[in-house]
Amino acid sequence: MCQVEFEMACAAVKQLKGPVSDREKLLVYSFYKQATQGDCNIPAPPATDVKAKAKWVAWNENKGMSKMDAMRIYIAKVEELKKNEAG
């Protein structure tokens, strides 16, 4: 696994046309943030901001995961979404 594969997966996820569940979107987002920024380093948003809170929780669940592991999981998840879309 390398940076190039990760960047290709980042481009591929933007090309997905099929429906992607909110849970899958959060997973992809959380692994992207972990791979690019590391552990969540921002304070939790207020519970009244449901979308931001869900994104923060998803990212924060990956705390301690290496950037390389997050890249691997992100790539695998994008590949899974592409396969599901292809049928």
From TrEMBL:
Pfam families: ACBP
Keywords: Lipid-binding
InterPro entries membership: Acyl-CoA-binding_protein (IPR000582), Acyl-CoA-binding_sf (IPR035984), FERM/acyl-CoA-bd_prot_sf (IPR014352)
Ranges of residues in domain ACB: 2-87
Superkingdom to which the source organism belongs: Eukaryota
The name this protein goes by in its record: Diazepam-binding inhibitor-like 5
Biological source species: Vicugna pacos (Alpaca)
